[in-house]
DNA sequence: CACGCTAATGGCACCCAGTGCCAGAAGGAA
DNA sequence: TTCCTTCTGGCACTGGGTGCCATTAGCGTG
């Protein structure tokens, strides 16, 4: 059995929660993520073994893999829930808004974060986009992001989401967002929202103006 | 194993004779790729171990890793040389050609193949884009492709290739090409060049027309 | 022919990620 | 206490990938 990680940890949020039977989880995904990120920053991603992380968390190596399917998944945090937010955001965009305009807005919104978290997010994204192993793995996560965009585009165009145009839009939007992220990481003083806005406008004008 | 031919290492590039000193390589990258692709088709990528491949080729496991840095690299064949071709192709495009038009043409050209190879290429690409491990790994190869496009775009725009616009163009072009590839794989009777042409035209018009 | 130079091979030990199995540990409720 | 449940974590095993090093195989020269 894949033994799929993450059950009722119920990390951050309160949720006093109905007292369930059985032994309590020894830790949470959040805790492991934080801990691991510190180790990565200190020793580097590749040099940090799962044993290191488990030891630091005071759990067994085997247990670690019940919280995360792989070491690569550690930096992704609550990505899947964020995707749901984006789906909802798309749903709230007025029908009158042009398709690519909606994509632009939703993408910017998806990547908005409180100023206090900028520093943290930057570190996380630097890991994800600059450590080759993680960059490779990220492709699989990004596929889920593309899926959300393709769903919306397909809906708007009255086409199946698997058709060329919705898929092309989703792929292009992802590519554009990643190029903006790379600029953001390269330039300490840059603003992510602005970079996303600029690059998505380029996309929407077919890179014609200069 | 019939390790006949495959005399000269460095198959492909010139230097027909050039009697070098030292022991002859036991096989070639090409031979290993072919062999492996057959095994993948028969047993699946994940179920085929490096030991299987090495055994089938009649070489030691250790030797395999001197021909390919990883099992994931097997299906990529001569990709790097093909990239050089694309670089040259870009260089030959007349200066009068609009930038995005040049990108469209070069992308289509890069992905052109003799009809006899279509079947083979389809199988290879299905592996690369549908086996999760390989899809993830492919990101790293695609980075090199983007680099070629970004170089050209940067050159044309008079900007460093690392700037937002060249990078955005490269990312978008890659995304578009991949969406075309997915359609091609999904529809047995489709034509890759045509799909690339259609999706790149969409890109160049900012996905505006319908 | 024997020697030395060079370039490749391949066995061995080892590291690390990830998995199946299973015997417990820890909690609530009867 | 006993039962039931959930989570833990040790153990053994697979498979990719690497460092080390002795060995093999070609070539040229004395």
Describe this structure in words.
The structure is a homodimer of 210-residue chains. Chain A has nine helices and no strands. Chain A has helices at 29-43, 50-57, 61-67, 79-92, 99-110, 115-130, 132-157, 164-186, 192-204. In chain A, helix 1 packs across helix 2 (50-57), helix 6 (115-130) crosses helix 7 and helix 8 packs antiparallel against helix 9 (192-204). The longest helix of chain A is centred in the last third of the chain and has 26 residues, at 132-157. The N and C termini of chain A lie far apart (54 Å). The structure holds a DNA duplex (30 and 30 nucleotides).
What does this entry show, briefly?
The structure is a homodimer of 210-residue chains. Helices cover 64% and strands 0% of the residues of chain A. With 210 residues, chain A is an all-alpha fold.
């Amino acid at each position: 059995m894949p033994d799929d990680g993450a059950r009722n940890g119920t990390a951050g949020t309160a949720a006093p929660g109905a007292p369930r039977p059985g032994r309590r989880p020894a830790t949470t995904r959040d805790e492991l993520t934080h801990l691991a990120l510190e180790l990565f920053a200190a020793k580097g991603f590749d040099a940090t073994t799962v044993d290191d992380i488990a030891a630091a968390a005071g759990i067994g190596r085997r247990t670690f893999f019940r919280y995360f399917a792989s070491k690569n998944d550690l930096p992704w945090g609550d990505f899947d829930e964020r995707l749901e937010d984006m789906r909802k955001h798309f749903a709230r965009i007025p029908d009158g808004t042009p398709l690519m305009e909606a994509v632009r807005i939703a993408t910017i919104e998806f990547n908005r974060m409180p100023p206090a978290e900028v520093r943290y997010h930057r570190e996380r994204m630097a890991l994800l986009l600059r450590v080759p192993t993680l960059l490779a793995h990220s492709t699989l996560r990004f596929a889920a992001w593309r899926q959300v965009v393709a769903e919306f585009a397909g809906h708007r165009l009255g086409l199946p989401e698997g058709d060329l145009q919705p898929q092309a839009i989703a792929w292009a939007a992802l590519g554009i967002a990643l190029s903006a992220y790379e600029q953001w990481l390269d330039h300490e003083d840059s603003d992510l929202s602005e970079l996303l806005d600029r690059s998505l406008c380029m996309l929407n004008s077919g890179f014609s103006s200069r």
